[in-house]
Specification:
The protein folds into 2 domains: 141 residues, no CATH class; 159 residues, Histidine kinase-like ATPase, C-terminal domain (Heat Shock Protein 90), CATH 3.30.565. The protein is an alpha+beta fold. A hairpin with a 3-residue loop joins strand 6 and strand 7. Helix 2 packs parallel to helix 5, helix 3 packs across helix 5 and helix 9 packs antiparallel against helix 10. The protein contains 10 helices and 7 strands. It is 65% helix and 13% strand. It starts with 10 loop residues before the first helix and ends with a strand.
């Protein structure tokens, strides 16, 4: 971001146009009101306004880059006095040197106070604007640095959460494979192949990329295949997914912890079958995903860190800045996890 306001697109054109407009107004005023010759009026206006414009241009260039932390008010009040003296007296000397006119010389003397007042106001305003521009530019730069720092920290935390999810699932899968090697070696081999395919797809995903919901479901199905090999007929999934939901976008690896949580609370600690109801639909630019599974509150909860749901909630907050996108509710018999993903307007 530039610190010189005149380097902002089109500002320098406005500056030049304003100077030319002031010259034209003064020329017509001198010719029509005071009946000066065109040559004398044009020369006088060009000398005075060009010199004043160059002074203001120099001040903008200097004080838009250098901002004294102290004595700014003193500078704004008293530096213009010195510059006004040189601009008014210098302009009069140049005009009198090239134009030999007693009438113009007398007119310059009569309007000296007016010229000095206008010059002082313009120069003081330029100084004040330069200080303000510098401060606003510094504040904008500070905001940008803070946003960049927050973005880097957010991406680092998202990466950390993702790196925690993957080993968490891997350990469970390896334990399942180990339990199948002796009794069901074919299923163990198939599980190793599925596991390899699952992690190959996982490594291709980037945290910053939103994926089609249909692609994320395909990836989730690999995980469910692994779990169904592990639990056999005990695990069933009933899907109710609308067509509109398939084209929605979703952060990668967001559904797996919810399914893993449903399996943990539905199957661990019991020998009964489990049916997980998986529902997804789009409503008013919100993708709603819901997992519903049986839950027995009387059974002792399976020991764990509770990392899955916490990681989903944290990722949603880091990505969308909201804490209401994951709703968890339970009764004595049912456990419900509802996920809401905002969709960008197309």
């Amino acid at each position: 971001m530039t610190s010189n306001p005149l380097l902002v697109k089109y500002n320098y054109l406005y500056y030049i146009a304003t100077t030319l407009a002031a010259i034209i107004v003064q020329v017509f005023f001198m010719v029509e009101v005071y009946e000066f010759p065109w040559r004398d009026a044009i020369y006088d206006a060009m000398v005075h306004w060009t010199l004043l414009s160059l002074l203001c241009f120099g001040l903008l260039n200097v004080f838009s880059f250098v901002n004294p932390p102290r004595y700014q008010l003193v500078i704004v009040l008293f530096l213009p006095l010195l510059l006004v003296y040189f601009s008014v007296i210098g302009a009069e000397m140049l005009v009198n040197y090239y134009v030999n006119s007693d009438y113009l010389r007398a007119w310059l003397g009569d309007t000296q106070l007016y010229r000095g007042t206008v010059a002082y106001l313009l120069i003081a305003s330029t100084l004040g604007f330069s200080f303000l521009w510098y401060r606003v530019s510094e504040e904008k730069a500070l905001v940008i640095r803070q946003q960049e720092t927050e973005r880097i920290a957010r991406e680092a935390e998202l990466f950390k959460l993702r790196q925690q999810i993957q080993p968490h699932f891997l350990f469970n899968a390896l334990n399942s494979i180990n339990s199948l090697i002796g009794s069901r070696p074919k299923d163990a081999r198939r599980m190793v192949q599925k596991l390899s395919e699952f992690f190959r797809g996982t490594l291709k995903k980037e945290e910053g990329d939103l994926l089609l919901f249909s692609d994320e479901i395909d990836h989730l199905n690999l995980y469910l295949d692994l779990e169904q090999m592990r639990f056999g007929h005990r695990l069933n999934i009933e899907r109710q997914i609308s067509e509109s939901a398939l084209t929605c976008k979703i952060p990668p690896l967001l559904l797996q912890p919810l399914v893993e949580n449903a399996i943990k609370y539905g199957l661990y600690g019991t020998t009964e079958d489990l049916t997980i109801h998986f529902k997804a639909e789009k409503q008013a630019n919100i993708l709603t995903v819901e997992f519903l599974n049986p839950y027995d509150s009387d059974l002792e909860e399976n020991t764990g860190t509770g990392f899955g749901l916490t990681s989903v909630e944290r990722r949603l907050y880091l990505l969308y800045g909201r804490k209401d996108l994951l709703e968890i509710s339970s009764t004595e018999k049912l456990f419900r996890a509802r996920l809401k993903i905002p969709q960008a307007d197309v």
